[in-house]
Specification:
- The protein is mainly beta and about 160 residues long.
- It contains no helices and 13 strands.
- A 7-stranded antiparallel β-sheet has the order 1-2-12-11-3-9-6, with no helix packed on it. Strands 4, 5, 7, 8, 10 and 13 form a 6-stranded antiparallel β-sheet that branches.
- Strand 11 (about 125-130) and strand 12 form a beta hairpin.
Length: about 160
């Protein structure tokens, strides 16, 4: 585990190509669910989603999904607007919410960073990669940070 000067803790990744990327949110124990305005994954400085999503399965081959939906749709996290967003169900109904992006059959995505625009005060998250949406490898974790609604943070590994 690596802890930087701001007191943020992070684990370093295992590098590999992935078809699926998933972010799991944590840090809330009561109240409404988690919400995210925007997610962008990177390989180096290159965004991995060249065209903003316009639906949960468009444009092809992308498919966005989530563990639950309190408001918005999962694709809103990848639509490039930074405003519409997605929210999970109340934390009592979905204590470990996630948002997943399928890059399509045959994809082998290498990822080493993301920018995340917050809509609620999530203070921890983990990023996972998978080739089959069943077996997941943790790529990155972060915790112990704070931010305000609408703020964007970038994490690299």
């Amino acid at each position: 585990m690596l802890i930087n000067a701001l007191g943020m803790a992070a684990t370093l990744p295992m590098r590999r190509g992935w078809r699926y990327l998933q972010i799991s949110l944590g840090g809330l124990t009561t109240g409404t669910g988690h919400s995210i305005s925007e997610i962008m994954y990177f390989a180096g400085s290159t965004p991995l989603i060249p065209t903003p999503l316009t639906g949960n399965s468009s444009p092809s081959p992308f498919v966005a999904s989530a563990s639950s939906t309190g408001f918005g749709q999962p694709y809103n996290c990848f639509d490039g607007s930074g405003t519409a967003g997605w929210g999970s169900a109340d934390v009592s109904g979905d204590p470990n919410p996630w948002v997943r992006l399928d890059f399509g059959a045959g994809a082998s995505i290498g990822v080493n960073g993301l920018s995340l625009t917050n809509a609620t005060a999530t203070s921890a998250f983990a990023v996972y990669g998978s080739q089959d949406a069943t077996n997941w490898r943790q790529l990155f974790t972060a915790s112990g940070f704070s931010w305000t609604a609408g703020e964007t943070k970038t994490f690299s590994w």
